[in-house]
Amino acid sequence: MNRLFKLVSHFGLIILTAMIVVGPVYAERLKDLATIQGVRSNQLIGYGLVVGLEGTGDQTTQTPFTLQTTISMLQSMGITLPPGTNMMMQLKNIAAVMVTTTLPPFAQIGQTLDVTVSSMANAKSIKGGTLLMTPLKGADGQNYAIAQGNLVVAGAGASANGSSTTINQLSVGRISAGATVERVIPNNLTQLSTISLELKDSDFSTASLVAKEINRSFGQDIAFAQDGRVIHVRPNNADGNRVAFLAALESINVNPGKGAAKVILNARTGSIVLNQTVTLENCAVAHGNLSVVIGTAPVVSQPNAFASGRTVESKVSQISINQDPGNVIQLGAGTSLSDVVRGLNAIGATPQDLLAILQAIKAAGSLRADLEII
User: Fold this and answer.
1) At what angle do helices 337-346 and 351-363 cross, to 10 degrees?
2) How far is residue 40 from each of residues 35, 103, 105, 235, 236, measured CA to CA in Å?
3) Cα gap 54→75, rounded to integer Å
4) What is the pLDDT along the chain (374 residues), one digit of tens a residue?
5) C-alpha dihedral (79, 82, 85, 86), degrees to nearest 10
6) Is 55 helix (H, G, I), strand (E, B) or coil?
7) 81: which DSSP letter?
8) Is residue 319 part of a domain?
9) Is the whole-model pTM more than 0.90?
10) How far apart are CA 5 and CA 7, in angstroms?
11) Half-sphere exposure of 155 (CA within 13 A, CB side)
12) Short-list 19, 47, 79, CA closest to 272
């Protein structure tokens, strides 16, 4: 379990460090570690019109596609405009929009989906508008859903003394249950002879442990790891109830392998998070008037004259951080990154100082962890 050090503030600098304390390992459900291959969502998109706006729609003289779409919609309903009237139309109550949603796995015909409607031209607001029937297509170009309904836009406006203020974005809205599924995506999961699990994070240790735990839980060798991400499982339920088998498979508890050490540094605030104890090798870094020296000192342990033991020589890790000749901080044994961060914070290092020093330590090969800058 992780335990965060207390937040230290010095000269306006806030540093957040994490100290990892060795504790009991807790198992996680397999459904939290892996997904079933083929069980996935699909993105849908469509182009349509929003009508009923209060003069805040597209300026059709600058957005000809809005006018063209409106004319095509009218013609599809049997309305033919007189020749020469196209250029005279000023449709301030209409806006061209893109409609997006996500089709979940195993979605059935008639199921409703929430949709997001976004203006794609120069409409000032689509608040209060109504989306006309819009087909939603998948990546294969097929229509999988139809969207229509009244928009709800999260935003508010106020005006006083001739000035106006708008809060939030008024060109994007949502329609709850605004789309109806009209086509399903075939899924042959129940007919597959082998089910493939995909770990959310590739790790050979975790993949091996997952396969081992599945085999132990079902009492026979039905799972094997293909690589650090994919585990193949052969269902062994005699009754053929694949849903019950998958439910039992997802409920298996697995102790995942220990991940790689990672250090995450926020370059703006100087916050540092460690996912485990990170130790440093010998190195020396000079940065401006700061210097960091990480090394080892010999320590001799000699028994007294009447003891039966023998003399042992070992090395103890030490860290020295100084800002000037009169300001030297000597940290005790245990060369850990958290000690370095606390020492630098104590003498008022800035976030940019931390970033430069950690990058230098990483480049020198002394930091045995992944350094991620956000």
Assistant:
1) 150
2) 9, 9, 5, 20, 24
3) 24
4) 333 333 333 333 333 333 333 345 567 899 999 999 989 999 999 999 999 999 888 887 778 888 888 888 888 888 887 776 665 567 789 999 999 999 999 999 999 999 999 999 889 999 999 999 999 999 999 999 999 999 999 865 565 566 666 667 889 999 999 999 999 998 888 788 899 999 999 999 999 999 999 999 998 899 999 999 999 999 887 677 888 899 999 999 999 888 888 888 888 877 888 877 777 777 777 777 767 776 655 444 455 555 555 544 444 344 455 555 444 444 434 467 777 777 777 777 777 888 888 888 888 888 888 888 88
5) 50
6) coil
7) P
8) yes
9) no
10) 6
11) 19
12) 19
Q: Dmax of the chain from CA atoms?
A: 117
Does 364 lie in the same domain as 338?
yes
CB 206 within 8 A of CB 256: yes
What burial class does residue 349 get, using C-beta atoms within 10 Å of its C-beta: 0-12 exposed, 13-18 middle, 19+ buried? buried
- The DSSP secondary-structure symbol of 5 reads P
Residue 309 sits in the same domain as residue 218? no
Tell whether 50 and 105 lie within a shared domain: yes
For residue 177, give both structure tokens.
């249950």
Structural domain harbouring 234: 29-38+190-254
Tokens linked to 133: 């029937």
Residues near 370 by Cβ (< 8 Å), separated by ≥ 6?
Answer: 260, 261, 262, 263
| DSSP character string of 240-280 | --HHHHHHHHHT-EE-PPPPPPEEEE-TTT--EEESS--BB
- Give me the helices (H) in the chain, please: 30-33, 64-76, 204-218, 242-250, 337-346, 351-363
DSSP-assigned beta bridge partners for residue 314 = 299
Q: Which of 199, 209, 208, 193 is nearest to 242 (CA)?
A: 193
- Report yes or no: 89 and 74 within 8 Å, Cβ to Cβ: no
Same domain (yes/no): 269, 309: yes
